[in-house]
Amino acid sequence: MTESLKNQTDQAWSVYLLRCADNTLYCGVTTNLQKRLRQHNGELVGGAKYTKIRQPCELVYSEPADNRSHATQKEYLIKLLSKAAKECLIKS
């Protein structure tokens, strides 16, 4: 395994929820929450189109995942939840 590929697989993944300025919630996965939040808020290049027009965004929930696969699986499950259920998740 090459060193760069090994480094990519060793990174800690997280699934997260952002509250946008219009009170909607955005769910995603990342290996760097602070950088990703800055991207979503337009401070760095690379934010999602959805959040670009709903800035500023605030990180309201995150949880670690063992790997990218688990993070994206959890993201999928969160996206299936109603907004009320997501709000309960945030409060927990």
Q: What does it look like?
A:
The protein has 92 residues and is of the alpha+beta class. The protein has a single domain, classed as 3-Layer(aba) Sandwich (GIY-YIG endonuclease). The chain is 46% helix and 23% strand. The chain has helices spanning 3-10, 33-40, 49-52, 68-80, 83-91, and strands at residues 13-19, 25-30, 58-65. It has a three-stranded antiparallel β-sheet with strand order 2-1-3, with helices on both faces.
Percent in strands? 15-25%
CATH architect. name: 3-Layer(aba) Sandwich
Shape: globular
Termini distance? 39 Å
Helix content: 40-55%
Q: How many structural domains?
A: 1
State the order of secondary-structure elements, H for helix, E for strand. Answer: HEEHHEHH
Q: How is the secondary structure organized here?
A:
Layout (H helix, E strand, L loop, with lengths): L2 H8 L2 E7 L5 E6 L2 H8 L8 H4 L5 E8 L2 H13 L2 H9 L1
Antiparallel strand pairs: 1-2, 1-3
Kindly summarize this structure in a few lines:
The protein has 92 residues and is α+β, with helices and mostly antiparallel strands. The protein has helices at residues 3-10, 33-40, 49-52, 68-80, 83-91, and strands spanning 13-19, 25-30, 58-65. It has a three-stranded antiparallel β-sheet with strand order 2-1-3, with helices on both faces.
Task: Provide the descriptors you would attach to this structure in a database record.
alpha+beta; 92 residues; single chain
